[in-house]
Amino acid sequence: MFKTEKYNEIKDFIKKTSNSTKIIAISKNHPRESVLEAINAGVHIFGENRVQEAQHKFKLLKESNPKIELHLTGPLQSNKVKIAIPLFDVFHTLDREKIAIEFSKHKDLLANKKIFLQINIGKESTKSGIFPEDTKDFLFFLKNELKLSINGLMCIPPFYDDPTYHFSKLKLLADENEISELSIGMSNDYKVALQFNPTYIRLGTILFGKRL
Predict the structure, then answer these.
(1) How far apart are CA 191 and CA 178, in angstroms?
(2) What's this model's pTM, rounded to 2 decimal places?
(3) At residue 212, does pLDDT exceed 90?
């Protein structure tokens, strides 16, 4: 069940911080009924982690409701890139060279799409993404060799660390590389993330409850 009251509360909190941050309602592992409840509450930006699940829930919904903006917030397999590009409007998890090369093969389909480079900000073995010290060279490769435009940087801090340190580090990386957009903050740390005026915060559990 979608928590409309909580959604409105967070929207009001964002306004008080004078941010233009947008909320991505992460609907992965939640039924289509919950998505419809969210749409009725005024939500039009959703996040999904799997291409197949997103197709099942959103293909027809997007056709009937062009305001819906769908974000891929989970890892993307290279063989799903061509299917994913027409379905999703924003990609948060470009995390390695192989996926970048697949994107570059379909540049004609990427008009009006946004891509965020995922940074493994804590250099964790359990997470994917580019290490902070490799960001500049990888961005150069994307821009100059693959001719791919990157709109922003995304990260997920180590769970037990202070997120402020990692968000600060990501903001510095973005500034150094003249990137203006950030995708940071989830249900447990979005208030900290808002201090950095991100473009997006990604909220799942706090809006939809625990996953099924």
Answers:
(1) 24
(2) 0.95
(3) no
Q: Which residues contact 140 (CB under 8 A, 6 or more apart)?
A: none
**Whether pLDDT at 35 is above 70:** yes
> Rounded to whole angstroms, how far apart are CA atoms 212 and 202?
18
pLDDT, one tens digit per residue, over 116-132 is 999 999 999 999 999 99
- Rounded Cα distance between 51 and 77, Å, is 9
User: With contact defined as beta carbons under 8 Å apart, do 120 and 128 qualify?
Assistant: yes
What are the residue boundaries of the structural domains of the chain, listed by start?
4-208
CB count within 10 Å of CB 63 equals: 9
Q: Tokens in use for 197?
A: 């005026």
CATH superfamily of 4-208: Alanine racemase (3.20.20.10)
